[in-house]
Amino acid sequence: MMGQMKPFSIGNVRIDPPLALAPMAEVTDTYYRSLIKELGGAGLVVSEFISAEGLTRDNARTKQMLAFSEAERPVAIQIYGGDPDRMDDAAAIVEAEGVDIVDVNMGCPVRKVVNSGAGSALLKDFDRAASVVEKIRKRVKIPLTVKVRKGWESDDVLPLLKRFEEIGVAAIAIHGRTRNEAYTGASDWSYIAQVKRELRIPVWGNGDVKNPADARRMFEQTGVDGVMIGRAALHNPFIFRDIVLGNEKPDELERRIDAMQRYLEKIDRAPQPDKWKLHKARTVIGWFSKGIAHGKDIRNGLAEITSVADVQRLLDQARERLAA
Ligand SMILES: Cc1cc2nc3c(=O)[nH]c(=O)nc-3n(C[C@H](O)[C@H](O)[C@H](O)COP(=O)(O)O)c2cc1C
């Protein structure tokens, strides 16, 4: 057996358990991250990607995305952008908020992002990517991490990662797909293992961990320091806890309803318009109700809701049905 699950550090930040909630745009805001943290098992939570352009132009909505709560710590904020002269300013803004880690996005495959020279476009220009990272490293004191894919169209990111290591990047997260693969095919865990073998800094392995058995396999097969999970946490927010406890039991509606309730309370308290609250409730409760018995009743009910109180009633009904 190659690797096991044990705590590690990113700079001075201890990661225990060595499991992370992956950054997900329009998902991993402070409410979602707080929920995941509260349910247990995640040693690090990472924000959705935040535009360096927006931050440095003092865009109010972008700035709002920097919000986090103390209970989330350690928390990483991810920024994206293609301009080395702006990314370091953005990183300084992030650091001033008091977060634990600043992370740079070099994986986003979306055309609009890539066309502005950001996200995975940086994997096509190693010099620019290194200059982005070097300027940030000189500017901030908190640990700097980078999340990459294995390359733009083939697996050739390793020389760049070695440059990052020289510059003083504290950890790497690698999703084992190329930019051109987007989300097709499979995450290449053997490439992840190679990256881990050839770097000295900690490595997060990412891609296709769907359940606790997958997480264990990723540790064993790749030797990574930590496992980072995205999509599986959209449906089962208890996945981190399940991994820590070695719980392979099928998921239950009861605890999912508990998660839905907690999430609903968080967004209901948020200083956001009702329209936003309804949208979030519909989306997240829709996800959490997938893959479990009677979840469909909840999803059907979501089509009818017009207020947060309606959502609350839906959860109450689900609990009553469960008790009956
Ligand atoms: C809805 C969604 C949004 C995402 N947004 C981001 C993002 O903002 N930054 C980022 O680095 N990766 C983002 N990703 C990629 C994930 O962090 C992760 O690398 C990818 O989903 C593979 O891991 P998984 O198989 O565990 O989901 C996103 C993925 C999804 C599904």
> Count the strands?
10
Report the C-alpha radius of gyration, rounded.
20 Å
The CATH architecture category of the largest domain equals: Alpha-Beta Barrel
What count of domains describes the coordinates? Answer: 2
How many DSSP helices? Answer: 15
Main sheet?
8 strands, parallel, barrel
Class based on secondary structure composition and strand pairing: alpha/beta
- Structural shape: globular
Strand fraction band?
Answer: 15-25%
**N-to-C order of helices and strands:** EEEHEHHEHEHHEHEHEHEHHHHHH
The CATH topology of the largest domain is what?
TIM Barrel
CATH superfamily of the largest domain: Aldolase class I
- N- to C-terminal distance: 46 Å
What fraction, in percent, of the residue positions are helical?
40-55%
CATH class of the largest domain: Alpha Beta
Low-confidence stretches: none
Mean pLDDT across every amino acid position: 96
Order of the strands making up the biggest sheet: 3-4-5-6-7-8-9-10
Distinct compounds present: flavin mononucleotide
Question: Features of this protein?
Answer:
10 strands, binds flavin mononucleotide, 324 residues, 16% strand, eight-stranded parallel barrel, 15 helices, single chain, TIM Barrel, alpha/beta, 46% helix
Task: Give a description of the structure.
This protein is α/β, with parallel strands linked by helices and 324 residues long. The chain has two domains: 8-245, TIM Barrel (Alpha-Beta Barrel), CATH 3.20.20; 253-323. It is 46% helix and 16% strand. The protein is built from 15 helices and ten strands. It has helices spanning 30-39, 52-56, 60-64, 84-96, 111-115, 126-139, 158-167, 189-198, 212-222, 232-235, 239-245, 253-269, 274-288, 295-302, 308-323; strands at residues 8-10, 13-15, 19-21, 44-51, 75-80, 101-106, 144-151, 171-178, 203-206, 226-229. The strands form two sheets. An eight-stranded parallel barrel has the order 3-4-5-6-7-8-9-10, surrounded by six helices. The protein has a two-stranded antiparallel sheet with strand order 1-2. β1 (8-10) and β2 form a beta hairpin. The model has no long low-confidence stretch (mean pLDDT 96). The chain binds flavin mononucleotide (FMN). Flavin mononucleotide binds at residues 22-25, 27, 48-49, 78, 105, 107-108, 147, 175, 206-209, 229-232.
